[in-house]
Amino acid sequence: MKVDVTLRLIVCLFLHQTLAESQSNSIVEDKDVLVLTKSNFHRALKQHEQLLVHFYAPLSGQSLGSILEFREAAGALKEADSDVKLGGVDVKKEKELAESLNITTLPSIRLYLSGDKNNPVYCPVLKSSASILTWLKRRAGPSADIISNVTQLENFLRRDELVVLALFKDLEEGAVKVFYETAADVADLPFGVTRHHEVFSKFEISRDSVLLIRKSKLDQQFEMESSTVKTDLVHFIRLYEMELVTEYNGVTASKILNSVILNHLLLFISKTEGGFEEIYNAYETTAERFRGKVLFVLIDVSELRNGRMMEYFHVRSEEAPQVRMVNLSNNLQYQLPSDQFDTHTLMEFCLNYLDGKVKPKMQSEPVPANWDTQPVKELVGMNFEKVAFNHNNNVIVLFYAPWNSECRALFPLWEELADHFSQTQDVVVAKIDITANDIHLHLGEKYPSIKLFPALYSERVIPYSGKRKLKPIVTFMKIEIEKAKTDKAKEEQRRKKYLEDQKAAQKEEL
């Protein structure tokens, strides 16, 4: 009897241990996406032959969209019983893991195969769940539809508003391989390839070429050479994938923001107003002249869904029509200095801009009447530099966007900070709506951003990146203010010596 009891105990302990080990090997999922960390990443690589990993920063605007689309793709793959598993790494939490994997840009997507962490396949940052699934599908099988007759061609051309069609005499060797590689990566467009002589004749083409066909009509042609590389072909497709004038909407927004062209000319206009057709024709004519250098975008101010875009650029519907040039590399804006929208005026503006002859548009809200009587000083573009770079004051500034919940959550803290320093004469606590006021200062990060401007003659800016709580901010300020006192004493000595040298030089001249 004792032997039987002992045997049962051993079996129970074994089962309990087995269950515990099984649970310890499982990885938590969030919406069908594995939550990957430093402690479980290698285990995930071993468990899944194909692991597509999304590296993201959760509070980043760019990452947010890709997080949602990634989850949707994960659900679709799970439902289809796919061998591919999707995982996510929150880089803000897993800095050490991201560093060990050499993650330098966010968001970033990589496909790890057969447990090899050192040689991932780099995936483009795809903007929709459909394109993620297409990319995976094209990697597993043919990356482009093989078109063998004219009937298939007609069906392919009707598949989408814009399709990529390649005409090659050899579908196995040569430059066609570059086309297949490109088709695998550019997953948001349909790709087809043919060697059928009737298709060559239909488009009156004799050489290997890649065509962009819009609404079943030839739009652009790219001749393929033996020296053509994938980046050349991708650049061609991205350069011409949008029409001469692209209307901003939910479908085109991501393509506009991710265009290879960084100079964007924006026409704010109501499509229902009387002179729309005449202005649009001039705008489209100008667009043809600058294609490849400037992306021409139309924003319909009568479309309610464009309200956020108009708010961002501070354009009211009654101010339309209006034209702005925006450079996406530095986000500077340039205003067309005219109420004429003819071809000559638009062309001259674009030429002057490209030649560096146009000055950026600086905007500012009016200075509030009681801006300096409140505990937290409300700065605008017109008084920012005067207050922030006052050598008698240590000024800490919160740069915020009023519609951002993370920014608004800091307002009570800023009132608390102002109250803490209310009896300190040389400390100013301030904030500025960075979406409504231009300043000559590169923030270096997204809002909310906190920066200290110490009481110095030289214009010094010290970013704060610690915890957003009263005590650590106060500690940070006190340390930097003490440093500033020492540095200012040295500045004053140098200034004094300079003045003495100037006086001595003047005496010698006399």
From TrEMBL:
Catalytic reaction(s) noted: Catalyzes the rearrangement of -S-S- bonds in proteins
Q: Which residues form a coiled coil?
A: none
Pfam families, from UniProt?
Answer: Thioredoxin, Thioredoxin_6
Q: Where would one find the signal peptide in this protein?
A: 1-20
Q: Where is the Thioredoxin domain?
A: 340-482
Q: Does the keyword Cytoplasm apply?
A: no
Name of the molecule in the record: protein disulfide-isomerase
Q: Which organism is it from?
A: Danio rerio
